[in-house]
Design a protein that fits this description.
It holds the Pfam family Bac_luciferase. One of its GO terms (molecular function) is oxidoreductase activity, acting on paired donors, with incorporation or reduction of molecular oxygen. By secondary structure, the protein is of the alpha/beta class. The protein has a single domain (about 5-300), classed as TIM Barrel (Alpha-Beta Barrel), CATH 3.20.20.30. It is about 45% helix and about 15% strand. The protein contains eleven helices and twelve strands. It has helices spanning about 15-30, 45-55, 75-85, 100-105, 115-130, 165-175, 185-205, 225-235, 240-250, 265-275, 295-300; strands at about 5, 35, 60-65, 65, 90-95, 135, 140-145, 160, 180, 210-220, 260, 280-285. Helix 6 packs across helix 7. The longest helix has 18 residues, at about 115-130. The protein starts with a strand and ends with a helix. The model has no long low-confidence stretch (mean pLDDT about 95).
Length: about 300
């Protein structure tokens, strides 16, 4: 199966949405079958994924990931169904747990009880997407709309959670369709992530979940420069406790050790290790975001 890619904004673009769509169209022509976009403060990832999928028929789109704070699950469900209808069934919803300190800085508040909120959030989404109704009254959320909650063409919506801790993985196994680990190496996927989420899904009577591994990557011959770029770009994640635990579990000395660096053959070997470890899909996330890397897109399509 070809690897997916993450699309990034082009700072030189005259219109950001037009540029994302143009990148997606070009990537699809080169054989890419799935693109993902991240949530940012300057664009809405669900809307963007829906617009891309509507403009490029047959291309899978997804969000990786949309933090579920501060949106209410009914609001997000409506957005996701709209994107699914726009893409004619080619949209995947990826949710993130968020991080307390960035949320506090950005919004002036943070939301405690992350796992309890995740469980209730997924419960509401599951009810809307699977049954077409919502009547939830919990400690974290109330979702009891008096109007219809489904949209023609808007379901089903695959839901994935960027879960890497044990409790989040268990909740995701019970209520979501899989996980979107980033900076979780092959060892962590094989020994911890896949067994944990798969067991939870089996106990809940749900299908085997998908493990969609997002891998930072740089295609080029200068390994020293690539490693320096990886250390610079990934340093932020070393400050987030959930990522610190995953990095420690992998047993690496540097965040750069978790990146796929080098020529096409080297990156291909890294992707193969992730698949051998149990990743059902691999997504390449470019470390150099100064320009769209069409050579990387071609490599992703060939892997």
């Amino acid at each position: 199966m070809a690897a997916g890619i993450v699309l990034f904004g082009n700072a030189q673009a005259q219109n950001a949405v037009d540029d994302y769509i143009d990148q997606a169209r070009r990537a699809h022509r080169r054989g890419v079958r799935q693109v993902w976009v991240a949530q940012q403060f300057d664009h809405d990832a669900i809307s963007l994924a829906g617009l891309i999928g509507a403009a490029v028929p047959g291309l899978g789109t997804g969000t990786a990931a949309v933090p579920f704070n501060p949106r209410h699950p009914l609001t997000l469900a409506a957005q996701a169904q709209t994107a699914q209808a726009a893409t004619h069934g080619n949209f995947s919803l990826g949710l993130g747990l968020g991080a307390h300190e960035p949320e506090r800085i950005s919004y002036g508040t943070s939301w405690p009880n992350t796992i309890a909120r995740l469980r209730e959030y997924l419960t509401v989404l599951r009810s809307v997407f699977d049954t077409g109704v919502a009547d939830h009254h919990g400690a974290e959320f109330t979702a009891a709309p008096t109007w219809p909650v489904t949209l023609a063409g808007g379901t089903p919506v695959p839901v994935y959670v960027a879960a890497m801790g044990p409790r989040a993985l268990r909740v995701s196994g019970e209520l979501a369709d899989g996980t979107l680990p980033y900076l979780a190496g092959p060892r962590t996927i094989e020994e911890f992530i896949t067994p944990t989420i798969t067991q939870a899904a089996a106990e809940a009577g749900r299908p085997a979940p998908r493990v969609i591994a997002f891998v930072p990557v740089h295609l080029g011959g200068d390994l020293a420069a690539a490693r320096a770029l990886a250390e610079e770009q990934l340093s932020f994640y070393a400050t987030i406790p959930s990522y610190q635990k995953v990095i420690a579990r992998e047993g690496v000395d540097s965040l750069a050790d978790l990146a796929a660096l080098g020529d096409a053959e080297s990156i291909g070997r890294t992707v193969a290790r992730y698949r051998d470890a149990g990743a059902t899909e691999v997504v390449l996330s470019a470390l150099d975001r100064t320009r769209p890397d069409e050579e990387l897109w071609e490599l992703a399509a060939a892997l």
